[in-house]
Amino acid sequence: MDKPTLLIVEDDDEVRTQMKWALMQEYDVFLAEDRQSALQHLKQHKPAVVTLDLGLPPCPGESREGFSTLTDLLQSDPALKVVVITGQNEGNHGVQAVGQGAYDFFCKPVKIEELKSVLARALNVYHLERQHREQLTSGISESFEFEGIVGNSPQIQRVFATIRKTSAWDASVLIVGESGTGKELVARAIHRLSARQNRPFIAINCGAIPETLL
Q1: Residue of 52, 49, 14 whose CA lies nearest to 28
Q2: pLDDT tens track, the chain, 214 positions
Q3: Residues 70 and 87: beta-carbon distance below 8 Å
Q4: Distance (Å, rounded) from C-alpha 140 to C-alpha 185?
Q5: Domain with 50 in it: what CATH number?
Q6: Structural domain span for residue 103
Q7: Are residues 97 and 158 in the same domain?
Q8: Does the pTM of the predicted model rise above 0.70?
């Protein structure tokens, strides 16, 4: 079975090499040191996941070139999952990167086992979204059904994409919306796609239980 393709964009040769050796068992790894080489690898090898250091030449002490690279990568392949790596005291840059389309971010120094976990989740979301696109383009049904929820509008497709991304995380989720909009359907969909899918899903109506008893 072919290994998934990973692109590491990092200007520090030593860090690039260390990351490659740490991840080459699980991935077919390619290395880039700047924006131009990253885009060349993207076009040639079509990776599913990218790790991107924001401090790239010609201004490695700033994040400007890294953000420009993120924009170009996602414009070239909107389905790409980019995990941004930033400085220890620059968590705000990571949050900004996620707002601009990155899948997640890490602060240096990177803990490889945690990075492996995030990359695995990103890859899982990538495959789920690709499967979804293939089903849409195959014309199987005019009203696409996803985990018990039916719809094919752009708005509901964005909801489906959020469900796929959220289900990959081991974290609490708050779902908000008017009564009758399908919050429990969304919760059940997240549960079915999550690592807890074989455990019970228990729905509790908190509004019907007194505060002290709850």
Answers
A1: 49
A2: 688 999 999 999 998 999 999 999 999 999 999 999 999 999 999 999 999 999 898 988 888 999 999 999 999 998 899 999 887 566 688 888 888 888 888 888 888 898 998 898 888 888 877 876 776 666 554 456 777 787 777 788 788 888 888 887 777 889 998 877 888 889 999 998 888 888 898 888 777 778 887 7
A3: no
A4: 22
A5: 3.40.50.2300
A6: 5-123
A7: no
A8: no
